[in-house]
Amino acid sequence: MKNIKKLLATAVLLLTATVASAQLTIPGTNVTYRLNNEDWRYLRTFELAEGGDVYLYCYTGHVLVDMEGDTVLPFLRIYVNKNYDGDLYDLAYERYEAQPFQSLKEYSKGNGLPSNGGIGYIGAYTNPSDQKDYQFFMTYFKDKGTSVEFRLETTKDTFEEMEFEFTDILSSIK
Q1: Can you tell me the distance from the alpha carbon of 4 to that of 87, in angstroms, rounded to the nearest whole number?
Q2: CA torsion, points 143, 93, 170, 49, in degrees to nearest 10?
Q3: Of 86, 78, 120, 128, which Cα lies nearest the Cα of 103?
Q4: Residue 137: beta bridge partners?
Q5: Which of 159, 99, 109, 101 is nearest to 139 (CA)?
Q6: What element of type H or E holds 126?
Q7: Which residues of the chain register pLDDT less than 70?
Q8: CATH entry 1.20.58 includes domain 2-155+163-171
Q9: How confident is the model over 90-124, as pLDDT tens digits?
């Protein structure tokens, strides 16, 4: 029954994600967000080993090319964990341990954070496999006891071009 509910929730998410400016709801939460145009494509849902899901989208609006001439696909990952008991700074630190990053800015209002609190970062890191520099927005907050994280990422040299897309999605989170 649980798998059927999860499959139905993913199907609804997939169907609504194909509509421009779709208002989407994260299953099991009161959290809604909007993809601002048809340039964002739902790719798939991953189940987390510790319980929860990751919803993955990529930006296909137009071809982005970095300074090295490589094609770049910015992405949006939404992590949803119903079993997370720690506070948001613990969660941010766990993410940092899994993939160290430099915090360029920390914020506690705006950019996707609900009025009842949360934390966000603009961060950067160098990927050891391709030696490229990446930059991202990451927000952490809780809803109905569920931790929710939005991560919008692209290469450092295409971040400025994508910043409006990213902040538009983040500003739609309710």
Answers
A1: 31
A2: -60
A3: 120
A4: 122, 152
A5: 109
A6: strand 119-126
A7: 1-21
A8: no
A9: 888 888 888 889 999 988 887 778 777 889 999 99
Residue 173: which of 109, 121, 113, 120 has the closest Cα?
A: 113
Separation between Cα atoms, residue 120 and residue 141, nearest integer Å: 9
Count of C-beta atoms within a 10 Å radius of residue 85 = 8
Residues present in the chain in total: 174
Contacts of 136 (CB under 8 A, 6+ apart): 101, 121, 122, 123, 124, 151, 152, 153, 154
Helix, strand, coil: what percent of the chain each, to 5? Answer: 25, 40, 35
Q: How far is the C-alpha of 160 from the C-alpha of 158, rounded, in Å?
A: 6
Whether the Cβ atoms of residue 13 and residue 6 lie closer than 8 Å to each other: no
Domain ranges for the chain: 2-155+163-171
What is the model's pTM?
0.82
Instruction: Using DSSP, state whether 163 is helix, strand or coil.
Output: helix
pLDDT of residue 62: 85
Helical H runs in the chain?
2-17, 88-98, 156-171
**pLDDT the model gives residue 144:** 81
